[in-house]
Amino acid sequence: MQLKSVLGAFVLVFCFLPAVGLAADDPLTFTYDPPKDLSKHREIELWGTFYHTRIAKDQPDGHDLLNKHDKPIGPKLGRTDWCKAALEGAAVIEMKDGSKVIVNVRDADGPAQVNCSPLYPHLSARARNGMRHTRFFKITSPKVKYGYGIDDMPLAAFRTIAVDRHQVPIRYRSLVFIPKLKGRNLTLADGTAITHDGYVFAADTGSGVHGHHIDFYTGFVNTNPFPDLAGGERHRFKAYLVTDEAIHKQMLELHSD
C-alpha cells in the first residue's frame, strides 16, 4: 500500500507486462453473490487509493536491499525501482539469469541508504526520511506471487485492501462489499478479464491509510483501474461490513500461505 514502508513499522488504461518469466496472475474467483439484504450489514462511507507490486530488473551497480541484520539480500536496484519498492511495499525482480526474486518491505529501521526525496517531493519530510531506512526480505513461498500484507497474508489482486492500522472503522480480516465495485469489468496484468463481484478483504495496512481511507491492491496493474473508487478523498462511496461465514472462510484461504 502507499507509504507502507515509510510511515509504518509493519506492515483505465491497463498495461500488459512484457514477458519476463512471471507466473500468470492468480486464478481468482469473482463470482460470489451479493448480500441478500444489505440492511442487515453495517454501512460505512469510504474513499480509496490503489497500490501495486513493482516490476523491476536487477542492477549489479545499483543499490543494495538490506535485511533485518543490515546485510544485502542479493538483488540490487536502481534508485527509481528501489524507491518504488519501498513506497509500494514489494517488488518482483528479474535477475540476469532469467529467474525472479520477490522482495517485501520488512521495516524502516535500517541505516540511511537511498535518497528518494527528489522522486517524491510531495511526501512529508518524515516520510521521505523514513524511506531511506527501508529494509527488505526475500519471499520464498511458491504461493506468493505479489508480496505479503499483514501477518504474512499473501496479497491478492483486486481482492486485498489495506486499512487503517488502528482498525477504525474496518478491522483486519474484515469482509467488505462495495456495491459500486460489483459488475466492474477489469483486466489483470496477464490479460485475464474479470467481472468483479464487489467483495474485498482487509489483509494489509499502512500508516498512509487512516480512518475511512482504504487502499485497493491491484497486483501488477500500475494504472488506476477505477478512478471513482480509488481517486482520492473527493470520491466517497458506500460499503458494507459483511458477515458471511462461507465467503469469509474462502477469503482467508486465498490470503493464506
TrEMBL record:
GO terms for cellular component: outer membrane. This is 3D domain-containing protein. Keywords: Signal. Residues 159-240 form the 3D domain. GO terms for biological process: peptidoglycan turnover. GO terms for molecular function: hydrolase activity, hydrolyzing O-glycosyl compounds. Transmembrane segments: none annotated. Pfam families: 3D. InterPro entries: 3D_dom, RlpA-like_sf. The keyword Lyase does not apply. Residues 1-23 form the signal peptide.
